[in-house]
Design a protein that fits this description.
59% of the residues lie in helices and 4% in strands. It has three domains: 19-177, no CATH class; 185-336 and 379-398, no CATH class; 342-377, no CATH class. The protein is mostly helical. Strands 3-5-4 form a three-stranded mixed sheet. The structure holds zinc ion (ZN). Zinc ion is lined by residues 1, 275, 279, 382, 385.
Length: 399
């Protein structure tokens, strides 16, 4: 979606804040839900972004509480030992082994802890426990509970990489968080490998058609591997770096952007087209979700996609309990702030003239551009595609 351009790096959402001020003033909110200590809220906001935590607190999805009185022993907890605040915590039987278990297993166990913070602390206090993995599991479970925040997912991907999680188990975490296909770490790894194998050759290609062909090969291999209909072709078209067109099931790329000569250009071209391929996957996911109660012809008409793509969707309808069902719902839901940003639209002509004259934008103009771009990137389709692009860049950087 090119109207406001794929130019900037995604800005970080979370600004880490110091622990002391908030820890001293725990928030107490009434209502149903799970209580959290102020330190828990802080840890959460560091990981998944203050804005997301603030939102979750405001809606009652998260509750902050005063540090709790010692909790009664949850019957289902491993070891059956009651963790208690304030008194020395007895070791939890099996805790070291649990902390080394695959995340696929660990997450289910951590999810069942109640109150989770007390159980986490009891496990962390047990000798031989891998605290980094346990804390990460706790973060992942909280990330799932607090809802979508793409910046938090990138951080989780990085932490999983740092603790040396095998790719199959990283896939399990991403599936748990509601992602699939091109967003899965195994897809990202395969893309990064193909990207490295092709980047040098792409750099030597002197025509748009050659480069487009090489990129199309890399991208379609990934789409085919995750069961998404492949892209017909990559066309040359200006107005933003790249764009996915669902009606023709093609991707267009800006000619100048595709032919840039700097050393990092081929890798960027590949991640940009991977972003557009994610849009194709999104539209296929929506079509699969429509396939529950629509014919292929109805899907093609309602979602404005080629009939052959609708046929493929009809052949693999998305189950209502699929891990990606929530993403499909977000993509199908009404888009807030759709259409051009009114402030940017008001100065657009002036900006184009200034750019043509090679004049610098004023700080005020730049602020409007940045705000419009942030607004654009927060739309469900873009937030998800930029997340996948970010994961792809991280994959390229770490292979
Ligand atoms: Zn996009």
């Amino acid at each position: 979606m090119p109207d406001e351009g794929h130019v900037h790096e995604p800005a970080p959402v979370a600004t880490p804040i110091g622990a002391a001020p908030l820890a001293a003033t725990p928030v107490a909110l009434p209502g149903p839900g799970r209580g959290m200590t102020a330190s828990h809220v802080l840890a959460l906001s560091r990981t998944i972004g203050n804005a997301a935590v603030a939102r979750a607190l405001a809606t009652g999805a998260l509750l902050a509480r005063e540090p709790a009185a010692p909790a009664a022993a949850p019957a289902a907890a491993p070891g059956g030992v009651a963790p208690a605040g304030g008194v020395p915590t007895p070791p939890v039987a099996g805790a070291p082994e649990l902390s080394q278990a695959p995340f696929a297993q660990l997450l289910g166990t951590v999810e069942g802890w109640s109150p989770r913070e007390d159980w986490l602390q009891a496990h962390l206090a047990t000798p031989g426990v891998d605290g980094k993995r346990l804390n990460l599991a706790d973060t992942i479970v909280m990330r799932k509970e607090t809802g979508v925040d793409e910046a938090g997912v990138v951080e989780i991907a990085q932490e999983l990489y740092i603790v040396g999680t095998p790719v199959g188990d990283r896939d399990a975490v991403f599936t748990y968080l509601g992602f699939g296909g091109l967003a899965l770490p195994s897809s990202i790894e395969a893309f990064a490998t193909a990207s490295a194998a092709n980047a040098a050759a792409i750099a030597t290609m002197r025509s748009f058609e050659e480069r487009a062909g090489a990129v199309l090969g890399v991208i379609n291999a990934r789409l085919a591997a995750v069961g998404v209909p492949t892209i017909g072709r990559i066309t040359k078209e200006g107005g933003g770096n790249a764009h996915f067109n669902k009606k023709s099931w093609t991707i267009s790329v800006d000619g100048d952007f595709a032919m840039r000569g700097d050393p990092s250009a081929p890798a960027q071209l590949l991640t940009t087209v991977y972003h557009e391929a994610r849009h194709a996957e999104q539209d296929f996911l929506v079509a699969r979700s429509l396939a529950r109660d629509k014919s292929a012809g109805e899907i093609a008409a309602a979602h404005e996609i080629p009939l052959e793509v609708a046929n493929a969707a009809k052949a693999s309808p998305l189950p209502a309990d699929d891990p990606q069902a929530a993403l499909a719902d977000r993509l199908r839901g009404p888009v807030q702030d759709d259409g051009p940003d009114p402030d940017l639209a008001a100065i657009r002509d002036r900006l184009i003239e200034k750019k043509a004259r090679g004049e610098k934008f004023t700080p005020e103009e730049q602020a409007i551009i940045d705000k419009a771009y942030a607004r654009y990137k927060n739309r469900p389709h873009e937030a998800d595609a930029f997340l996948v692009e970010e994961l792809a860049k991280y994959g390229q950087a770490t292979r």
